[in-house]
Amino acid sequence: MTSSSIPVPALELEHVSKRFPVSQGLFKRAATLTAVNDLSLKLMPGETLGLVGESGCGKSTAVNIMLGLLAPDEGRVFLDAREIRTIPLVERVRLIQPVFQDPYSSLNPTKRIIDLVAQPLRLHARGTDPLPAVREMLDRVGFPARLADTYPAELSGGQRQRVAIARALISNPKVLICDEPTSALDVSVQAQVINLLLELRRDLGLTMIFVSHNLAVVEHLADRVAVMYLGEKVEEAPVDPIFAHARHPYTRALLGATLVPEPGAALPVIAMGNANADPLNRGEGCAFAPRCPYAVEACRKGVIHETREGEHCFRCIEPVAA
């Protein structure tokens, strides 16, 4: 195989870290919050990567770094084999597009739907009539043609999210980042949006990062899963191995916390101990050690390096048996 035939990652993060100063009051020195720590990810063309973890684990900061909205303190981000900071803004927004969490605040309330979706084409493809492509895209995402001249306030949450997806896809980006796109929607509408993304991935060959704390949705949609805890990637693997044989105790705890849709089923028992995750007081060693039922003294000292077993990698010195 020649080097030219080796597929190039659509998006890649190499040892990315990001920190923020946090005020602790008038008479205390500002603390440092490490939002992302030594994060490496690789997204291949046509692949969907699920990025999961509880609130505050660094998912949204990682997304902002991927989009070029935040510059990392360390590490590099590559988009279409080029370092993202070297790509002009106009070109970058054609290559990567987001679908945000809240469809109620991500659309300009003063513009008609057809103008909202047409705006990227008017900015990047001047001199051509964008309306035929806009109407085709709205039809593809299942948005009723009769509502094209309405305003966002006249739509339901599910309809607004369809508009947001159409706007993100209208310029044919190489990467689509969905940042918890269903969490603000009703359960029935969530299923419609997930099925829409599945159809679009199949029909358009989408390359996606799907950010969520809902493991059931990620299992349904993603090819691979990366699990984050306090800014670190603690485990990554294809969907089937990670759901069947998770190696990191935190991943096991997340999977065990999933509610079972069966009448009479008891609430899940979450094996995370009594300590809380504290991003301002991480200490040495594994960040999950204070909550881990398997932690030993070595877990609380030094750097915990990543272990790789084929396509399955995890950051743990006492992994759960496969």
From TrEMBL:
Its EC number is 7.4.2.10. It is found in: Cell inner membrane. Residues 11-255 form the ABC transporter domain. Belongs to the ABC transporter superfamily. Glutathione importer (TC 3.A.1.5.11) family. It is a peripheral membrane protein. Its main location: membrane. GO terms for biological process: peptide transport; transmembrane transport. It catalyses: glutathione(out) + ATP + H2O = glutathione(in) + ADP + phosphate + H(+). It comes from Paenirhodobacter populi. It comes from the Bacteria. NCBIfam families: oligo_HPY. GO terms for molecular function: ATP binding; ATP hydrolysis activity. This is Glutathione import ATP-binding protein GsiA. Part of the ABC transporter complex GsiABCD involved in glutathione import. Responsible for energy coupling to the transport system. InterPro entries: AAA+_ATPase, ABC_transp_ATP-bind, ABC_transporter-like_ATP-bd, ABC_transporter-like_CS, Oligopep_ABC_C, P-loop_NTPase. Pfam families: ABC_tran, oligo_HPY. The complex is composed of two ATP-binding proteins (GsiA), two transmembrane proteins (GsiC and GsiD) and a solute-binding protein (GsiB). Keywords: ATP-binding, Cell inner membrane, Cell membrane, Hydrolase, Membrane, Nucleotide-binding, Repeat, Translocase, Transport. GO terms for cellular component: plasma membrane.
